[in-house]
Amino acid sequence: MTRSAWLDGWRRVFRAPAIVAGVFVITLAAPVPFALVLGRAIETHLGRSLAADAAADGVHYDWWQEFMSQASGIASTFTPAVIGFASTLDHLSRVLDGSGEIFPIAALVAGYLLLWVFLSGGIIDRYARQRPTRAYGFFGAAGACFWRLLRLGLIAALIYGLLFMYVHRWLFDEAYGRLTRDLSVERTAFMWRVMFYALFGALLVAVNITFDYARIRLVVEDRYSALGALRAAVAFVLRHTDRVMALYAANAFVFALLIAVWALAAPGAGGTGWTMWIAFASSQLYLLARLVLKLQFMASQTSLFQASLAHAGYTAAPPPVWPESPAAEAIGT
Amino acid sequence: MRLSPAAFVSLLLLSCLIDVDARQPAARQPGVQEFDQPQAGGRSPRNANYEIDVALDHAARRLTARETIRWRNTSANATSELQFHLYWNAWRDLESTWLRERRLAGTFRPPRADAWGSIDVTRVRVRDADLTAHTRFIAPDDGNTVDQTVMSVPLPFVVPPNESIDIEVEWTAKVPRPFARTGYVGNYYFIAHWFPKLGVLEDAGWNTHQFHSATEFYSDYGVYDVRITVPQGFVVGASGRQVERTDVAGGLTRHRYRGEDIHDFAWTTSPDFVEAKQTFTHATLPKVEMRLLLQPEHAGQEQRHFDATAVALRHYGEWFGPYPYDHLTVVDPAFQSISGGMEYPTIFTAGTRWIAPSAVSQPEGVTIHEAGHQFWYGIIGTNEFEHAWMDEGLTTFSTIRAASEAGAPDGIAPRFFGGFIPWVIDGIALSRFDDANRYGYRERAEADAPATRTFRYWPGTHVGISYGKTALWLHTLERHLGWSVLQRAMSTYFDRWKFRHPQPTDFFASLTEASGQDLSWFFDETYRSSNVFDYAIQSFSSTRVRLKPDSTSEDRYRTIVVAQRLGEAIFPVEVVTRFRDGHQVSERWNGRDRRVIYTYERASEALSAHVDPERVLLLDVNYTNNSATLAPRAHEAGRKWGLKWLVWLQELLLTYAFFV
Does A97 map to a domain? Predict the structure, then answer.
């Protein structure tokens, strides 16, 4: 069942290319104004300077340090970690280390996450029905589920917040500090850190999985109560732990594979002209792959959920009256 | 013999009078010592010679020790007081000056209960007089009555100039967990500035500063004969050379080290050290035995440490003067020890990581730097409390120059996941101006003037000013005067002041002498002020003009270049204008006025104007505005980096999307 859900997930994702295209466009477009501001700040700083030549043709590190010494706001995030694979490590590291200093772009991040909360209803609905719902269907489902998903999202934010504020702090500041303060061997300290990453990562994954299925149950079963969906999700995960975990692991493995490939393929600073656009295009390809993978998590988990319950595989049929929940739709046929 | 209190008070009053008299201004330069010439058979004055016997109680983390100091008064005046540094008392409680300053700097985290360290003098005897009861703590820098890092011992007699006395001191010390540079972690100990150590009696009086969070040390040269007793199986490294090793009762081993013509003594011990030795050889420089005490997990980096040490010995030896000792110990500090990157005579700590990419200068950078301190600190005994730039700045400049000459790794690698995982950024190679600017000078350019005594700097500005600004102005001088002149000045200074205590003016005098120029204007800007250098092209145009309205053959381009001085500091600069036909016009501007205007009428259009195109003035805090072109590529650069950052931002969004 896990394997078929995994494969089915891919099938559902690729049969709804508009969703992929939509979330890609959003992910590309949302930060563009910020990038324009930064690009403009760089342009202003360089002015008519000859330093722009070196900055355009490669990395002008001296100029960069000068720029950074005067930078504030979003420009303060413009560090060498923006180059190539360092960017990926930077973000993953910040999340796991709980050191995400995103204040200058906090509004963008918040807006983007809110957009995902909104879109999740439409996306899960579409993947559950396995047939085109068209824009009106997609946005109808998204709109109908938004407030419920938002309530669920707030609960998730609370739990993640508690995880980072208390568990992470305890693990990495207290326990890790205590365990390693007398260590004279870095390797051992690193092993401890890896263990704590694994432990905290497992907690994150557990919460993540639970809320993934809560979202699915909330949309697919047309639930109104976020807490009820969460409770139902916990029950589902506990009943099907092996399958749920195996599916998550399969998707996580693809993520690791993607990251490994990107580590080898990520373009460096490069120059301007067509090489710059090729580098940008390859980066977008990578980001697209990550988006597809995120959708695959949603689609395959939806598939697993549908396949695990008694409702005849949740095969979607045209709704008698839209919007109707996929579950009701399945029963109705 | 014990003195009666009355007799002691009388002597004390008398000695104070003499002491006050001794401090009358005699138009002497601060820091001068009248009798600081090398002793026969030695390289240095050898006026502070220490015989120390110390035992480490590993279980209790304590030292029990005694020392006999043979001290000679090298000042021009008599004294009736001794002053000792008791550095470890900086970590005795929260109210020490060191910890108060650390809190001001905003880099303080409260230590755990078992982290504190301290040093308690249990006995002081001079000429059979037990002076223990008369010792007192003084705070000459800030009057902090709680600070116990300087101990004053009034003498019941006066010590005339050039006369010697023997001082016996006994003490116990609690080894701290490292606050900075010294202490223990697990089985690893790095024991530095650990013994009651005399200040420096200058002609102007005792120069014994409290321990400050940003500054280091200052002391006289001598011979150190130190017996160190540690558990058997512990490897010991120390200043000087091992001359004896004896197993003693109780499962202990006594190591005896002797170092000559050094002004401090540090040691380290751990059962885990992997020991390696190599010999530095050179056609014209003396051989040096390099001993490396490496952490087992860094075994693969052995050669990198030796190579980097050899770079320093070679280049500094060739440029400034030979390393005079035949031994040098490199200590690879243990993880979490906070003892890395620190210099002591003939021994220093390097610093590396378990994962250390070969493209990045770690351990090379820190090794070359600390090995270089053997010259600018070890051999040239500067007062680091007051003029930290004289060792840190000169060493930073020398490090960057030596690393560049030797082709040391020049990549950068930000570290991720708790700092364990480095990632080398392709396309970034550090150069001399990148490297010198990395110390944060730009951000703190106006924070303090180097002429301010270093311990008076605002905590947190020391690195930017002492390291960064000095290295930048030395690089600037190198470009302004030429390396041969600067090298001659530095080697003259090195030769003239080795094993002595030079003042800033002595260094400036060597530069003036070697260059044959009055450079006071430069030192006024760089040393005595916190003014910043910032030259710019204010405007630049090149437009076609018809000089004679009735003729087309007289069309010319009128090029107007306005160069501007934005900063307060002044430096002569070159203003170069390049033309489309390949010609360029170079103007020498003394840089004094706020701006200068150059107008050219030529057949060719101008392409660019550039103030200081050769980047002589590395101190210019904003070099980007130094040039202007008629075909700017800022838009291209802005677009390229905007796109790079866009990808970074998209990935950040996607990473956070994990949570929804």
Answer: yes
